[in-house]
Amino acid sequence: HGDTLGAIGVGGVDRFTAMFAPLTFEAIRLPTPGLPAGPSPTADGGPRTDPSGLAATAAETLDRLEQLLTQQGDDIAAVIMEPLVQAAGMLFGGEAWRMNDPGLRIMWQLIQSSVASLVMLAGLVMVFGVRGGNVLIHIAVGMLMFGQFAFGDRQIEERMNLIEGQTSTMACRTDEVELAVVAADEGAETESVTAIAGRLLAARDGGEPIVLEGLPFDIEVLAYFPNSLVTRVGPVAKNRATTGFGKSWLATERPPEGGASSRSNIASAYVRLKEREGGKDLGTYLVSQFLNDRSQLFMAGEGDICDTLDVAGEPWRLQLRFRREYKPYSVTLDDVRRVDYSASDTPRDYSSFVTFNDPATGAEQPGRIWMNNPVRYKGETFYQSQYSQVQLPDGQVGEMTGLQVVENAGWLIPYVACVLAFWGMLAHFGGTFVRFADRHERELTNGAEEHGDEQLPSRRRRGEKAAERRAGQRGWVAPVLALSLVGLIVLPAARGRRPASDAADWQAAGRLPVMHEGRIKPLDTVARNTLQLLSNRTTVKMPEAGEGPKGTVSATEWLLAVMANADWVADAPVFRVDAFELLDLFDLTRRPGHRYTFNELQGGREALQEQIATARDVRQCGDRLRRHRLRPGTTGSTRLAFHAGFICWQLCCRLSAFWPGGTPSIGSSAGCCSAPSCFTPLRSSQGST
Fold first, then answer.
1. Among 103, 548, 584, 617, which is 20 to 30 Å from 427 by CA?
2. Maximal C-alpha separation, the chain
3. Do residues 563 and 555 make contact, with C-beta atoms less than 8 angstroms apart?
4. What's the count of helices (H) and strands (E) in the chain, helices before strands?
């Protein structure tokens, strides 16, 4: 382990040798032969085939060595075998006994913090005595408050989206936006970007135009929305945008999302461009993240939709997007993996295998980022945030990962403060407990000495104690009787009945383990939960008439019968229907228990499908009415009448879905809705409809 380049080149610590990789020769490293506690991957990422013993794993490594020497023996200068001194954990435990690098880093910080805490505790005890631990606790709380005050507003959170195989140096600030004006020269390797901060757009909303050097036009902000709703509109709708994609879209302001919301704000703005030389009006454009920043906002694989204008023969592109920061290094997504719980679509783990490349030094650092296991690089911490599958431009489906990049200079303060509080609480409450135990022992000793010479109690006192003893004995009678009664009821039910020799043991079948929603459960639990959702019961009460089983059927027997497609399952009353509208729809008669069979519901399936289709048409009709725009100059009372009528129309559409003969008709040819008979036109004070 010397400090010469030769010793560094054959060292076994990758993080150390990677720093000097450009100065050293190539070295091929084989995995260390160990005996893992469980199945662990090999060097090439595949599962270890035979982890049964030390000899097997050693033979596996020797086989790889023999294969390597057979293929590249003429080019290999030497074979170096490094002894593992004091490595019993590696010998018998393998990598399973070794803490990963992030864990070791945190452990080292905790050890250092503990040493500092003990030194501080010793000094505080010398100054404050038994209150030294309490003072240390207050110091820890003060450190947490100071860290939040000093570094809370200075921490930076960014997001980096990468498709598998992609390399990027760009990260987005999701709390800030910018209007990028890009010189869009086709075929150029680089782009000239002029970024206007979102704070400037908000400050110039309805005010003076923005004049920037290097741009052949001025930008006038007509309206800026920190959060907006963007909807598609037709050509007759009133719209501020006069050119570009904004003529087909309309942006309206929405309240900003709060800190507790997981949704992002979608910023939009209407900007008017005027040519600087001559003052020619270039049109009003809609710039919105909903169109311009789809790849970052929705983690979509398709390209962004941006307007491009031509000024003096030069193309310029407008893009409202998250503020972008460019790193002095690049990140390559080598592989992204998603592991789901068995028999479930619920994700258990996301893992991103990345490679950091610093062009200044040429060093590369691989890393794996997964849940609660970040990777730190050059003062920044990378967390696994999202995973999605996106449609690529070539039609294929690619995997995309979302990484959260956090830069926080005070990230170590909470760790140190927690360690200080731990040792302070241990000293404070430990000392309090010792003093309490010592005082309690002294009180017992002093009490025994004081009562040792007391006279014998009088006869009256003995009688009172005997009466209290008898009353205490009678007090146990009621609880014992109550517990006995509960035991007589619960124990037989818990023990269950033993089935006959020729009958199926459904209790034993219910104990079979099954995988459900990512968890291993007894079959009886899955069956009971399913029945609870359908009928609000955990058993099935079969009718006396019929060919199926009689009486009460367990949930396990019912679920296995459903899996086996038994004939009597369709006649089992397991569907609870409470709504009168559904009973009328299926032409059913209300009965005690409100439970019906599959065969009874079968006759109303077509009517149910018709109602579902009607509900969908009503929703489309409401969307068309919602996008309707009144003509300019319409009086306020007419507008009020229109909106009131629209509310009545929605109410009638919803009610008519369960009102015989009241279903609204949809004008498919004209693309408009005809009002049902229950819709009465409203008139304003001027008499207009």
1. 103
2. 121
3. no
4. 19, 23
The structure tokens listed for 516 are 């459900």
What phi-psi label fits residue 536: left (phi over 0), alpha (psi between -120 and 50 degrees) or beta? left
Provide the 8-state DSSP code for 47.
B
Condensed to tens digits (0 to 9), the pLDDT of residues 243-288 reads 999 999 999 999 988 766 778 899 999 999 999 888 899 999 999 9
**CA distance linking residue 540 with residue 552, whole number of Å:** 6
Please return the burial class of 335, using the count of CB atoms within 10 Å of its CB with bins 0-12, 13-18 and 19+: middle
Average pLDDT estimate for 302-315: 86
More confident: 452 or 226: 226
Residue 505 gets the label, from left (phi > 0), alpha (psi -120 to 50) or beta, of beta
User: Above 80 in pLDDT, residue 553?
Assistant: yes
In the chain, the amino acid numbered 513 is: P
- Domains of the chain, by residue range, sit at 5-102, 106-154+418-441, 157-407, 506-603, 609-673
Distance CA 665, CA 662 (A): 9
Helix intervals (H) in 73-100: 88-93
Per-residue pLDDT at 645: 57
Long-range contacts of 124-127 (CB under 8 A, 24+ apart): 125/427
Identify which of 535, 631, 537, 542 has the alpha carbon closest to the alpha carbon of residue 574: 535
What are the CA-CA distances from residue 130 to residues 114, 123, 277, 418, 435 (Å)? 20, 12, 80, 21, 10
In this structure, what DSSP letter does residue 109 have?
Answer: H
DSSP state of 22: G
